[in-house]
Design brief:
The complex is a heterodimer of chains A (362) and B (637).
Chain A: E1 3-13, E2 16-26, H1 32-41, E3 62-65, E4 68-71, E5 86-89, E6 96-98, E7 101-102, H2 105-113, H3 132-142, H4 149-153, H5 155-158, H6 170-181, H7 190-196, H8 208-212, H9 219-236, H10 238-247, H11 285-293
Helix pairs in contact in A: 3-6, 6-7, 6-9, 7-9, 9-10
Chain B: E1 7-11, E2 14-17, H1 21-32, E3 37-40, E4 57-58, H2 70-80, H3 87-106, E5 121-122, E6 132-133, H4 139-162, E7 169-172, E8 175-183, E9 186-194, E10 200-204, E11 207-210, H5 231-238, E12 243-244, E13 249-256, H6 270-273, E14 277-279, H7 303-309, H8 325-337, E15 347-350, H9 357-363, H10 365-375, E16 384-393, E17 396-398, E18 413-415, E19 420-421, H11 432-453, H12 463-478, H13 485-499, E20 503-504, H14 506-524, H15 536-560, E21 569-570, H16 578-581, E22 583-590, E23 593-600, H17 606-609, H18 614-618, H19 623-636
Classes of the chains: A alpha+beta (362), B alpha/beta (637).
The structure holds flavin-adenine dinucleotide, iron/sulfur cluster (2 copies) and FE2/S2 (inorganic) cluster.
Chain lengths: 362, 637
C-alpha cells in the first residue's frame, strides 16, 4: 500500500554536514516521524532524532520541515504533494549536536533564571481557593509542552547569537506572564522582571512565536502584550510612578538604572555588542534606550558574604558518610598520577592534519 | 583501570534514576533532607513519560462528593487489583495522596476548580466517587512541569545560599544508566553514558532510587515511548533485587487502531467518563453483556439507567463502559474475535453522537486537538476506532511498602513509581498511578536519605565492575557481524505481542519462552553501526538486553499463574482462583537465568479487612480465610 517518497535530511554534527537524499516508503496516514523511524530501522540506523510520545504531548521532536519549525510527530505526510521532496533540518537557533538533534540547553538555563512560584505565606496546603475563571488565564500558558519552536523562530535570537544572554524568549515571557496572572503568587514584580532581566523590550511583537506554537497558545496577544502594557503603565504613568515611590518603595524598583537596591545583578556582557535594533523598533522606546546604555557601571555590587550555615551552625556539607575530608578526585580516586604516557588519549588538534614538523611552529 | 576511555566521575549522596513524577518527587525529598542529589534521565528534563498522562491523579479529597474518604479509595484500589495488592501500599496511597496533591499547589500547580474554588475531581473507571484531580486532559504535563519547577526553585535557593544552582541538586538529562555497581551487597554507584556525546559517566553514591517507569516497548501496539525498555526492572534484578507480579500488564482498552500514525495512542478514559460509549460494527452498545458478577451491583443494566447516571450519579448505577480497564479490554477483544470489529480490528468509541461539538471541545480539548492534527479525525463528528494497547506494567521491583527499599540481597536500592510492584495488585485503576508516583516517590527519596545517614562507611565502587560495565557498553559498537538492533526489537515485540499478549495460553507461553531463549543469543551478539555520538541504534542495542530479561520474567510468571485475574488472562484457566490470590510470583536472577518463586501475600490487618462486607470478600477469599474472617468478626462482637 505504501509508495516511495523523496526526502532530504540534514546529516552531520557541529563540525559540519549536508543534506542527504533518501527515498523511503510512506504509508497512508503516516507522519514525518514515522518516516524517520523507518529510515532508522533500515538505511540509517544511527540517524539521530529526539522523540518520546509521538502524540504531540512532550515537545521532543521539534525540527524544521521544508524550512518550517514543526513537531515531526504532528506533521502528516498527506499535507505534502506526492511528488514533493520533503526537506528535514535541525532547529536553526540552537547549536547542532548531531543530525536532527540540537543543544537546547539555552532554554533550560533561561528556565532556571526565571524566579519560581512564590507560595502565599498564610495558606497551608489544602487551603488554596481559586475560581476557574481566574486560573484559566495562567492555565493557557501552562499548556506549553516546551517544544521550543517559538524560541527557534524568534528573530531576536534566531540569527543573533549575541542577543542570547540578554533575551529569554517567548517561552519564558509566558512563564513570567503565567506567574503574574497566578491568583495566589506572592511575588509582585513579575512584569518588572520580564522587562529588566528577560529582555522583553527586544520583542517587537512580530507574532512569529504565536504562529508556530503547536499548543495554539496566544503567546503575543495573551502573554507578551499584557506584560508590556503593564510594564509601560507602571513606568511611565507619573502617578503610578509616584505612587510606587511613596507606597511601595523597596517593592517596586523604578528602573534598571538603579535596580541595585533589589540586589539584582545587571547582566554585564549581555549587551556589550550593542543592541540589535529591529525594523519598526520594539514599540518600547525605553527598552531600546535602556539597552543602549549597556552595563550600568554605577550599580552596587553585592558584598561577598559567608555561605549560609545550617541549624547546627555548620556548613551544609553532605559528605558526612564520605571516607575522606577533602573533595574526591574528579578522575576517580583509584587513578594515580602521572598516568603512563601510552594510556593518554590526548591528540593535539593540529597533530593529525599537519605533516610532522610543521606542527612544531605553533 | 583502562584510561584509554575517559570516564567522568561524580559523587552524590542520593542518585535518582528517572525524571518522571516518581523520580522528581524522590529527588525533591532527598534534597530537602539535605542530601546532595543527582537526577538522571534518558530524555530531556520534563519529557518523561509522566508528561503523557491525561486523565488525572486520584486522591480522596472529597471536594466533589463529600462522602469520599481514604477508606473508600482503599476499597476501590483493592477491588481494582482483585485483592492481590500489597494492602499496606494501598493503604498508604489512599491516606497520603490528598496531601501530596495539595502540596503540588504550593509548588505552583493550577488544577481545574470546583465552584467553591477547591480542586475539581472527575469520575474515572473503578472509582466510586469523582476522585481524579485534573487539568483538562493534560494532568501529567501539569504534574511534571510543577515538579520540574519546584526543582528549579530549590536550585534557585541553592544559588542564593551557596552560589551555585547545582550545589545540591543536579539534573543529568539525556543520560542512560546501564549498570548499578555494588560493594558486596551494598549499592556503591551507577554507570552510564551521555546520549549526546557517547561519553561515559560514573556516579559514586551509597543510595540509588529507581524511578525508571515501565516496559511497554516490548509490545508492538503500545502507548509507551522508546524509554520504556524496563531498564529499572533489569538493573534491579542484576543488582540482586527481586521483581513481583510481572505477569500483570495493563492493556488500555481504548488505544487508537486507525490511522497508523496514531496506532497505540490513547483515547483517555474521560471520553467514556464524559459520555462516550463503545459500539461494535452492528452498532450495538455491547458493554452491558460483559458485566462480571463481582461488579453486577454497581453497574447499570439498561441504557436508560446508564445515561441518567451522568447527571444523577447518586440515584443511578454507573454505565458499564466505566468498568475497570481489564474488563473493558477483554470485552473489546471478544467482540473483535467474534467478527464484530471494525476493519482495522477495533471497535467504535462514539462521543460525537452523544455530546454537542462545543461541549466535546471544551471538556476534551487536547483529545480533540490531537486527533484533528495527528490523524485528521474529527471526534466531534465521527466515532473513533479503538482497541487494546499495552499501557502499564503492574509488576515491578518488590519493595518494602513503607520505605520503598528493594527486597532481595541488595542494600541501598529504592524504587518508586511504575518500576515498583505491589501497589496495584493485578490491575491498576486509572488515576492511581500519578498519585502513586507522588506518595511513594516522596517516601523512597526520604528513606534513601536516611539510609545514607546511618551508614558507617561509604561503599566503594570496585574497579573491576566499572571495567566490565564499560566493556559491555562498548561491545555492540565493536562487533560488526551481529544483527541490526531494530530487527531484534521487532522480533521481540512480535513474540511478546502474539504469544504473551492480552489473552494467554499454555502452549503459546511455552513457545514464547523458547523463542525468547533464541533471541537472547541473538541479542548477545547485536551490533550497532556508527559512532558513540547520539547514536540511537547503539542506544537501542544496549536497551535490548533489559527488554529481554524483563520479557522472560513476564512470560515465565504468566505460564506459572494458572488463573485469570486483572491484567493476566489465561484462556485455559478463565476464572479467578482464590488459592492463587494468596500467592505472589517473585522473579530473581540466578546468574543469567530467571528464577521464579512463590511467596505468600502479607495478611491484611483486621481493621482494613473489616472495611469490606462479607459477600464481597467471598468472591475473592478462600474458605479458610473466610472462616478466619468470621471468627474475628465474632470476637469483635
Ligand atoms: C498515554 C498515557 C496516559 C496515562 N494516563 C494516566 C492517567 O491519566 N492517570 C494516571 O494516574 N496514570 C496515567 N498513566 C500512567 C502514568 O503516566 C505512568 O505510570 C507514570 O507516569 C510513570 O511515572 P514514573 O515516574 O514511574 O516514570 P516515568 O515518568 O515514565 O519516567 C521514567 C524516567 O526514567 C528515565 N529512565 C528510564 N530508564 C533509564 C535509564 N536506564 N537511565 C536513566 N534514566 C532512565 C526516563 O528517562 C524517565 O525520565 C498514563 C500513561 C500513558 C502512557
Ligand atoms: S513576537 Fe516577540 S517574542 Fe514572539 S517571535 Fe516576535 S519578537 Fe520574538
Ligand atoms: S509556547 Fe508553544 S511553541 Fe513555545 S515552547 Fe511552549 S508549546 Fe512550544
Ligand atoms: S514526540 Fe512528543 S511531541 Fe512529538
Amino acid at each position: 500500500m505504501g509508495n516511495k517518497r523523496e526526502f532530504r535530511i540534514w546529516r552531520g554534527d557541529e563540525t559540519g554536514g549536508d543534506l542527504q537524499d533518501y527515498s523511503v516508503e510512506v504509508n497512508e496516514g503516516e507522519v514525518v516521524l514515522d518516516v524517520i523511524h523507518r529510515l532508522q530501522a533500515t538505511e540509517a540506523p544511527d540517524l539521530a532524532c529526539r522523540w518520546n510520545c509521538k502524540a504531540g504531548k512532550c515537545g521532543s521532536c521539534s525540527m524544521e520541515i521544508n524550512g518550517k519549525p514543526r513537531l515531526s510527530c504532528m506533521t502528516r505526510m498527506s499535507t505534502f504533494e506526492e511528488a514533493e521532496t520533503v526537506t528535514v533540518t535541525p532547529l536553526r537557533t540552537f547549536p547542532v549536536i548531531r543530525d536532527l538533534v540540537t543543544d537546547v540547553s539555552f532554554n533550560y538555563e533561561k528556565a532556571r533564571e526565571t524566579p519560581a512560584f512564590a507560595p502565599p505565606a498564610d495558606l497551608a496546603p489544602g487551603e488554596y481557593r481559586m475560581q476557574q475563571v481566574d486560573v484559566e488565564r495562567s492555565q493557557e500558558f501552562r499548556k506549553c509542552i516546551e517544544c521550543f519552536l517559538c524560541q527557534n523562530v524568534c528573530h531576536v535570537i534566531r540569527d543573533h547569537e549575541e542577543n542570547k544572554p540578554a533575551f529569554s524568549g517567548p517561552r519564558f515571557f509566558i512563564r513570567a506572564a503565567e506567574l503574574d496572572m497566578h491568583p495566589l503568587d506572592a511575588k509582585t514584580d513579575r512584569k518588572q522582571y520580564a522587562q529588566e532581566e528577560q529582555g522583553l523590550g527586544f520583542c517587537n511583537i512580530t507574532k512569529c512565536c504565536t504562529e508556530v506554537c503547536p499548543e495554539h497558545i496566544k503567546i503575543t496577544d495573551n502573554g507578551i502584550i499584557p506584560m508590556k502594557e503593564r510594564v509601560v503603565d507602571r513606568r511611565y504613568d507619573p502617578l503610578v510612578w509616584l505612587g510606587s515611590k511613596i507606597f511601595r518603595r523597596g517593592e517596586t524598583p523604578q528602573s534598571t538604572a538603579n535596580s541595585a537596591g533589589k540586589g539584582s545583578v545587571v547582566h554585564s556582557g549581555a549587551r556589550q555588542t550593542g543592541v540589535h535594533s529591529h525594523a519598526g523598533g520594539s514599540g518600547d522606546p525605553a527598552a531600546e534606550a535602556q539597552a543602549q546604555q549597556g552595563v550600568n557601571w554605577h550599580r552596587e555590587v553585592p558584598h561577598p558574604t559567608m555561605p549560609a550555615v545550617d541549624d547546627r551552625g555548620r556548613l551544609p556539607l553532605t559528605e558526612l558518610t564520605f571516607d575522606r575530608a577533602a573533595a574526591p578526585s574528579p578522575f576517580g580516586d583509584d587513578v594515580t598520577f602521572p598516568l603512563p604516557p601510552e594510556h593518554l588519549n590526548f591528540a593535539h588538534p593540529s597533530q593529525d592534519d599537519k605533516p610532522a614538523g610543521e606542527g612544531d611552529k605553533h | 583501570m583502562t584510561t584509554t576511555t575517559r570516564i567522568e566521575r561524580h559523587h552524590y549522596d542520593v542518585v535518582v534514576i528517572g525524571a518522571g513524577g516518581a523520580g522528581l518527587r524522590a529527588a525533591i525529598e532527598a534534597r530537602l533532607a539535605g542530601k546532595k542529589t543527582a537526577i538522571i534521565s534518558k530524555s530531556l528534563f520534563g519529557k518523561a513519560h509522566t508528561v503523557m498522562a491525561e486523565g488525572g491523579a486520584a486522591a480522596a479529597m472529597g471536594n466533589v462528593n463529600s462522602r469520599d474518604n481514604w477508606q473508600v479509595h482503599f476499597r476501590d484500589t483493592m477491588r481494582g487489583g482483585k485483592f492481590l495488592n500489597n494492602f499496606r501500599m494501598a493503604e498508604l496511597h489512599a491516606k497520603e495522596s490528598p496531601q501530596r496533591i495539595w502540596e503540588l499547589e504550593t509548588y505552583g500547580a493550577l488544577f481545574d476548580r470546583t465552584k467553591d474554588g477547591k480542586i475539581s475531581q472527575r469520575n474515572f473507571g473503578g472509582h466510586e466517587y469523582p476522585r481524579l484531580a485534573h487539568v483538562g486532559d493534560r494532568t501529567g504535563l501539569e504534574l511534571i512541569r510543577t515538579l520540574q519547577q519546584k526543582i528549579v526553585s530549590l536550585q534557585q535557593e541553592d544559588k542564593r545560599d551557596l552560589g551555585d544552582y547545582e550545589a545540591r541538586i543536579k539534573v543529568f538529562s539525556e543520560t542512560t544508566i546501564t549498570e548499578l555497581l555494588l560493594d558486596g551487597d551494598r549499592v556503591a554507584g551507577a554507570f552510564g553514558y551521555y546520549r549526546e556525546s557517547g561519553e561515559f559517566i560514573l556516579f559514586e553514591a551509597p543510595a540509588v532510587v529507581l524511578a525508571t517507569g515501565g516496559v511497554g516497548r516490548s509490545y508492538k501496539v503500545t502507548s509507551n515511548s522508546w524509554e520504556y525498555t524496563g531498564d529499572g526492572h533489569a538493573l534491579a534484578l542484576r543488582a540482586g533485587a527481586t521483581l513481583i507480579n510481572m505477569e500483570f500488564l495493563q492493556f488500555h482498552p481504548t488505544g487508537m487502531v486507525w490511522p497508523p500514525s496514531v496506532k497505540g495512542i490513547l483515547v483517555t478514559e474521560s471520553v467514556r467518563g464524559d459520555g462516550g460509549v463503545l459500539k461494535n460494527s452492528d452498532g450495538k452498545r455491547f458493554m452491558f453483556d460483559y458485566v462480571p458478577d463481582v461488579f453486577r451491583k454497581q453497574y447499570a443494566e439498561t441504557e436508560e439507567e446508564a445515561d441518567r447516571w451522568y447527571t444523577d450519579p447518586d440515584n443511578n448505577r454507573r454505565p458499564p463502559e466505566l468498568l475497570p480497564r481489564d474488563e473493558v479490554a477483554r470485552a473489546i477483544n471478544s467482540e473483535v474475535k467474534a467478527g464484530r470489529g471494525t476493519p482495522a480490528g477495533g471497535v467504535y468509541l462514539d462521543i460525537a453522537s452523544r455530546r454537542s461539538a462545543e461541549e466535546i471541545r471544551r471538556r476534551l480539548p487536547s483529545m480533540y486537538h490531537q486527533f484533528k492534527e495527528l490523524a485528521d479525525v474529527d471526534i466531534t463528528a465521527e466515532p473513533m476506532e479503538v482497541g487494546p494497547t499495552c499501557h502499564y506494567v503492574m509488576g515491578g521491583v518488590e519493595v518494602d511498602p513503607d520505605s520503598g527499599a528493594a527486597f532481595g540481597t541488595v542494600q541501598g536500592l529504592f524504587a518508586a513509581g511504575e518500576v515498583s510492584g505491589g501497589m496495584h495488585g493485578s490491575n491498576r485503576l486509572g488515576g492511581n498511578s500519578l498519585s502513586d508516583l507522588l506518595v511513594f516517590g516522596k517516601r523512597a527519596g526520604g528513606h534513601a536519605a536516611s539510609y545514607t545517614d546511618q551508614l558507617a562507611s561509604r561503599p566503594k565502587v570496585p574497579v573491576g565492575a566499572v571495567e566490565d560495565a564499560l566493556e559491555a557498553a562498548l561491545a555492540p559498537l565493536q562487533r560488526d557481524t551481529g544483527e541490526n538492533p531494530y530487527h531484534l526489537q521487532q522480533d521481540l515485540q512480535a513474540v511478546m505481542g502474539d504469544l504473551v499478549g492480552i489473552i494467554r495460553r499454555e502452549s503459546e507461553l511455552v513457545d514464547a519462552l523458547t523463542r525468547l531463549a533464541e533471541l537472547r543469543e541473538r541479542v548477545a551478539k547485536v551490533s550497532a553501526a556508527g559512532g558513540r555520538r547520539y547514536n540511537p541504534g547503539w542506544h537501542l542495542a544496549l536497551d535490548l538486553r533489559n527488554m529481554l530479561v524483563v520479557s522472560e520474567c513476564t512470560a515465565k510468571a504468566a505460564l506459572e499463574r494458572q488463573e485469570s485475574r486483572g491484567g493476566h488472562t489465561r484462556e485455559d484457566f478463565p476464572t479467578m482462583d482464590p488459592g492463587w490470590r494468596r500467592v505472589n510470583l517473585v522473579c530473581a536472577l540466578d546468574g543469567d537465568a530467571v528464577r521464579l518463586e512463590h511467596k505468600p501475600l502479607p495478611k491484611m490487618r483486621a481493621e482494613l479487612i473489616g472495611l469490606f462486607d462479607r459477600t464481597e470478600l467471598a468472591k475473592y477469599l478462600t474458605d479458610e480465610e473466610l472462616a478466619d474472617f468470621d471468627a474475628r468478626a465474632e470476637e469483635a462482637n
